[in-house]
Amino acid sequence: MDVGSIIDLEITGVAHGGVFVARHEGRVVFVPDAIPGERIRARLTETSKKSFWRAEALEVVEAAPSRRPHIWAPADIGVPPEQRPGGADFGHIDLAAQRALKLDVVRDALARIGRLDLPVTISPATPLRDADGAVVANETVDGGGWRTRVSLHVDDDGAVGPYAQRSHRVIPVQTMPLATPAVERALAGLTGARPGRLDLVEAADCAVRIVPRPSGERSRAAREVIIERVGGRDFRVDAGGFWQVHRLAAHTLTDAVSRRLVDGAGDDAPVDPEGWHLDLYGGVGLFAATLGVLGGEAARITSVESDERATEHAGHNLSEWVGARAETARVDRWVAALRASATDAQRARLARGVVLLDPPRSGAGRHVVEDVAALGPRTIVYVACDPVALARDLGTFRDAGYLADRIDAYDLFPNSHHVEAVAVLRR
Fold first, then answer.
1. Which residue in 179, 249, 278, 385 is the catalytic one?
2. Are 57 and 33 in contact (CB under 8 A)?
3. Does 206 qualify as catalytic in the annotation?
4. Mean pLDDT in the chain?
């Protein structure tokens, strides 16, 4: 069949990447904006591959019980596909059903890619409580209002918005229900941007920074130092630097890592003060600080990050720990060099240590995983934002002698297909 042909499809499952699975005359067809159990009318958009086709959903013929009006009206299935903004690809699904689908994706990746059979749970963001235990911030009922950072595109005509799905066509929008109210208000007032990108960033002070990134130019605004606050501690970070997007994500993940380390330590210290602990892909030191809280002010912690500005901030953010240092280096090269040069005394301290990895979406990769395992740490913590990369790397760790007992997934990107996960591995 040719591109543009219209066919009816029975949706049978979900795939990684925010698309759903159907079959047409034995061939797999990937299509967004659907739900397993539905029958939809779709238009083919790619038929060149022998193994699969792609299509776009045009109409729901038989709806699943979990379908709801899209949380973001411009992205609803009633809008022509080419005019739907991307970024909320699960927004047409009830929140509970979204989480069930994400659980399926994680389990499938572990089994198919990592050849692992592990218990997996999924939870919403952890509520933030005050000193008296009262909830001061929590997930919203519809999973909206959480994005403190939004990256938009500006085309040559000055239109501002996200791209349409699987395209580089800007869709101008005036609303964005996944964003915090302050970010959404800032979006509504945007005018006169130059072609390129435009970031909206809300920091702990609740002020929204508008960070223009014109094509081919460096942005001075991206280097403004802002303050984020987690666990009663301030963290310096550039407005254009990496920080967790969900307003509760940093709190949720550091809480999860801390609890898993404490629960798994038994009668031992969760972070041994005599060990050498590594925070790889360390950013501005968020997880290194978590290790420091558990290990005490003399804990030896090294944060490794390739971005020089982030490393500079990490050095400041970790200054209360006398044994902490932040190094600017590519993680793969740094770990390989340590594996080759570590003394017996260093290896003895690493054997009592925790290595935490929070890699980018592509994962750590085989060489980093094998080098980390060769250092022989007591505990490895892997924080993942991509289930396929997680499964691949956990499979490599398994082959190197380290196993996870379970996966704790967190829905820190409601109404999108993304999911975060934490795994703790030991020999």
1. 385
2. yes
3. no
4. 96
